[in-house]
Design brief:
- By secondary structure, the protein is an alpha+beta fold.
- Among the domains are: 134 residues, Alpha-Beta Complex (Sulfite Oxidase, Chain A, domain 2); 143 residues, Immunoglobulin-like, CATH 2.60.40.650.
- 14% of the residues lie in helices and 27% in strands.
- It has nine helices and 24 strands.
- The strands form six sheets. A five-stranded mixed sheet has the order 5-4-13-8-9. Strands 6, 7, 10, 11 and 12 form a five-stranded antiparallel sheet that branches. Strands 19-18-22-23-24 form a five-stranded antiparallel sheet, with no helix packed on it.
- A hairpin with a 2-residue loop joins strand 10 and strand 11.
- The chain is globular and about 70 Å long.
- The two termini are 23 Å apart.
- The N terminus and C terminus are likely disordered.
């Protein structure tokens, strides 16, 4: 039986109305010590022996497990959307089992023995590649981020104090992807270099499909079968998927089964009714593939508590679909002054970059924000600038500055930053505008 995809408006509404559950607050937002304790007791574990040097340890197993003291987890919004715990990971790589997930008809269960990738259309010789064929080609392993174009949809509207980095900005993740450059496969099929588009189609029940410009396909697109040193997880597109560096998540087609080389875009549902940016004058931007320069402070962030006044290191993630992160600035006084954060190596193109900033908190209320500049010169905007340009009728491509308010007791809340005047206007709220949201997220 075919499962009917979730209604687009229902999915968008559930996303915008997402809130922290009690479990999330206990296990995900109590700070380092609180999260460790919550994870341990939730699993029913006893405290470790007082002196582990006197007691033999437990044996290893075929597949390693996380310590019960550290239990990061994704949170679900809607039927098929899972947000990554970007506030509870280190460095830039997202563990494969914590990578964000958005699908339109659940996870396809594709057997490797039945898998084939067809390349046809404007080609000299149509080719059907098995998984074994793909693994025979010279491979590459490259680190890239993927971000859903609907990431940060909540941030178009006045924030809810309990919003967190995860439930607002968690539809982005970074992995090391292993596979075959698409350009190599196109050459194998004799693709016409005058063709301007490709249609990429999935093998799930939604038969999800997107048009991709040929120039991008010949540039840096990867047909990936590996993720972080192992085969793709099923929810990440096993046996093979597209990786389209720097472009919105929806074009990174999972369970990839077909690529048709053509001279025009297909103008399917997912590039007309969905994944378009509706402007204030009623027109729509289509094919807005590239993701903008973006950053977010992940500690301290919404739901956490700064334990005491004194020295603390702020940290977060920055990225850009245009290229490398060149600079990240941080403010702790609501934008009155800004200072450069330290970029932690590696700083890779079209991938998350970890940034760090030393902060001595005086125990008084503070507003924390970050903004990134990429190597193309693009600067992360404030929300007012985005609203003036694009209005409030689209859920996509929000890369605005995020503000966190540190209260006198150390609790951290999502807040209006000093620039968010547009969203304070009548009508600028989630409930009134959710009905106008077109399309699904990916």
């Amino acid at each position: 039986m075919t499962t009917r995809p979730p209604d687009p408006e229902d999915l968008a509404e559930r996303l915008l109305r997402a809130r922290l559950t009690r479990r999330q607050l206990l296990a995900g937002a109590l700070g380092v010590a609180g999260a460790a304790a919550a994870g341990r007791f939730a699993l029913g574990q006893s405290p470790p022996p007082v002196d582990t040097t006197k007691v033999p340890g437990f044996p290893a197993t075929e597949v390693g497990a996380r310590t019960p003291f550290e239990q990061p987890f994704r949170i679900q919004v809607g039927q098929h959307s899972w947000f990554a715990p970007i506030d509870r990971t280190y460095g830039i790589i997202t563990p494969s089992d914590l990578h964000y997930v958005v699908s339109h008809a659940g996870t396809a269960d594709v057997a490797p023995s039945a898998y084939k990738l067809l390349i046809h259309g404007m080609v000299g010789n149509s080719k059907a590649f098995t998984l074994a064929d793909l693994r025979r080609f010279p491979s590459v392993s490259l680190t890239y981020s993927i971000e859903c174009s609907g990431n940060s949809a909540n941030a178009w509207f006045p924030p809810v104090p309990t919003d967190t980095a995860q439930n607002v900005h968690g539809l982005t993740s970074t992995s090391e992807w292993t596979g075959v450059p698409l350009s190599l496969l196109l050459r194998e099929a004799g693709a016409d270099r005058n063709a301007e588009w490709l249609l990429a189609e999935s093998q799930d029940a939604a038969v999800f499909a997107k048009s991709i410009p040929a120039y991008k396909a010949w540039d840096d697109v990867l047909v990936a079968y590996g993720q972080n040193g192992e085969a793709l997880r099923p929810e990440q597109g096993y046996p093979a998927r597209l990786i389209v560096p720097g472009w919105e998540g929806s074009v990174n087609i999972k369970w990839l089964r077909r690529l048709e080389v053509t001279d025009r875009p297909f103008m399917g549902r997912e590039e007309s009714a969905s994944y378009t940016d509706v402007l204030p004058n009623g027109t729509s931007l289509q094919f807005t593939f590239e993701m903008g320069a973006k950053s977010v402070i992940t500690w301290p962030s919404g739901g956490y508590r700064v334990p005491a006044a004194g020295f603390w290191e702020l940290t977060g993630l920055a990225w850009s679909g245009r290229g490398r992160v060149a600079r990240v600035e941080v403010t702790t006084d609501g934008g009155s002054t800004w200072a450069d954060a330290r970029l932690q190596a590696p700083v890779l193109p079209k991938a998350h970059t970890r940034f760090r900033y030393p902060w001595t908190w005086d125990g008084k209320p503070a507003v924390l924000m970050s903004r990134v500049t990429d190597d193309s010169g693009a600067v992360q905007p404030i929300i007012d600038d985005l609203v003036k340009e694009r209005g409030l009728h689209s859920i996509y491509h929000n890369n605005a500055v995020q503000a966190w308010s540190v209260e006198a007791d150390g609790s951290v809340l999502s807040t209006h930053d000093p620039f968010r005047t547009a969203l304070a206007a009548p009508g600028g709220d989630r409930e009134a505008l959710v009905r106008g949201f077109p399309g699904c997220l990916a």
